[in-house]
Structures are given as C-alpha cells and as structure tokens.
Amino acid sequence: MDDQLTKRIAKFLRNKPVIRASDSLGNYAAASSIGLVRDQNQDAAAIARVRYASAPERDFDLAIVCDGLGGMKFGAEASALALGAFVSRVLRVRGSTEERMLAGMEQANDQIFGAFHGQGGTTLSAVMIPRTGLPMLCHVGDSRIYAVGKVGVRQLTHDDTLQAALHKQSEVPNEQRDNRLLQFVGMGDDLEAQLSALPAADTRAYLLTSDGAHDIPNAFLQRVVHAAGSNSDLVRRLVQLSEILGGFDNATAVVLPGTLEDTPDGHSDGLDLSVLAPTGNLNVWVPQFAEEKRPAAAPVANELAKEVSAQGTPQPSNGTDENRPLKQEPSKPRRTKVKGLKKGKKASSESELPLSESLTIQFPKSDEK
User: How remote is the C-alpha of 340 from its chain's centroid?
Assistant: First the structure.
C-alpha cells in the first residue's frame, strides 16, 4: 500500500525538531521538551480530529503518544513512523472501535519491524473517542494514559517494564530502577497490546504522557492537574516540571477532551483530518474512500528506512463484524495479541477501505520548505 498519509504525517512530525514546544486548539493541547540531557527528542505526539462531512456519526478524535526507544539507533524515526501508520490504518478500517485500534497497532508494529528489523522501536499509547459508543485505549510500553476527573487523576494503563512486572513501586523520580521494556512497537511477533473501554461519565479529559513527563511523584502530578487553569496550561506545566527536576529525558504530554468538540464546517464531502502536534497543525482533506477494494502494494516503511540508512548499520544495544457493538461498561485493561503480517500476506483485509487515488493535502505555509 503506497500510503501517502503515513508518510505525510511522519514527515510533518520529523520536519521540526522539538527543543521545547506546545500548541493548543480549544481544549485540545500538546507539549513536548527535549529535556536538559538528551541531544535528540525521540517523542512523537499528536491529536487527530476526524470529521466526516456527510456522516457526522462516524466522527472521532484520536490522541497518540509514542516514545522512541533510546537504546536503539532509530528511536525518533520509529516514533514518527509508528504514529503515522497508526492514524492512517485506523482511518481505513471498518468495524468497531476495538477492531480499528488493534488494526492500527498491528500496522504500526509491522511498519517499524519492516523498516528497522528489531533495531528500532517505540512505545505507543492511544485513546479514541468516537461520536457514538464508549472511548477506548490501546497501549504498549511505558508511556501512560490517565483519566482526569472531578476527583483527580487516575492511571488507566500498566507499564510494560520489568520493574512493573516485579511489582516494584517507587515514588522517587529518576532513581536507578529496571525500566527495560517487555513490550514495544517494532518487536515483531508476540506483541501484546493493552486494550480497554474507558470510563466516560466522570472523565472530563484524558492525559497521555511519555515517561519523562510522568516520572514524578503522584502527589506532584495531582497538584499540577488541580492547579492548571486550562488544558494547554496543564501540558506546559508538566514538561516544565520535568525540566525543573533535572530534564533527564524527553517529556511529552497531550490532553484530549472527554467528549468530541464541534469544529468549523469543512468540505462538503469526504473527510477532514486535522493533526495537532506540539509544533503546529497539519490539515488533510481526503475527498472520498475508494468504493472498490484494491490489492495492496508493498509496505511504505522501507522508504523511511532508506532515508536513515545513510547514518550507518544499526548496532544491537544492551476482519470482522462491522456492527459488533462495543461493551457498554468500562472494562479493566486486558492484553490482546496483536497479529503480525506473515510473509506473503497482503496488508489490506476485507474490512479495509483504501484511500482514493486523489489525496489532497493542505497544510500551513509555516510547514512548507
């Protein structure tokens, strides 16, 4: 599949190296900082707002945070590519929210493994809020998703680290502990994602963070959330606090409102996709989905792999029922096997909606080179 959308989103995220940046649109907000120690920001974050002109019941919001693995050579490239692949696949697949989220995770895992062969990887935490039905999370790694409500902040995901697996808790940030990941996007086979329907009644927003932003005592996090005057203020304060505490890692925070917000009228047909990142906004108009299914072409991940291959060889480091209803009650996170592509298997499925050939991309002048 010659996926223009995956490439465009990845390019948008990588074109502007983030030292410290934040942006917001209404109650949607995102911020990121390179910190004070790292020489590269390997986090990628975005909020995708999808609006269908003729079918508003299909509208949804999607927030994603990816944290490239610092011990691997292509962490920054992996996080941007994974985010782009995840968003693109969720847009293309029919079915329930659960099926679309799992398809997105599968695509991200396949693209990263295909591009970097296990020498590049990333965490991926995502929340999808559909116009109809319950919100849902999909998560791999040690980035986190929190529910923000009247009673405070509640962590919804479990860290996929050896430290967490051994049930060793710590309230002291940046101390020596074993944070090696047991699961990450790009590991290939045997990837298991955490999947859960989310509480909606008492949740005003969802907070997604990379470990650099949430590596603070829980009491501090609660106070920052309580004191923030707005969602944009909240994400800025979290990345600033990370720097105050030493800035040992990249720090990224995203806030997604708990309910869909209305957006100005867009095009009269197709769908409007708005991607908000800490560095700005990307607007994409997709005129229509192709009515007839086409066989998929070769994955696009190899293009990005070729682009970074000049840096040298990586060195090892130490289908579906469309109308199936979503459960009507929030569920505890469960691990779900993410199916990988087998050799010779096509990337598309009977439930996939390929994009039409005419893909129109509109983006701000500040993003043009």
Answer: 19
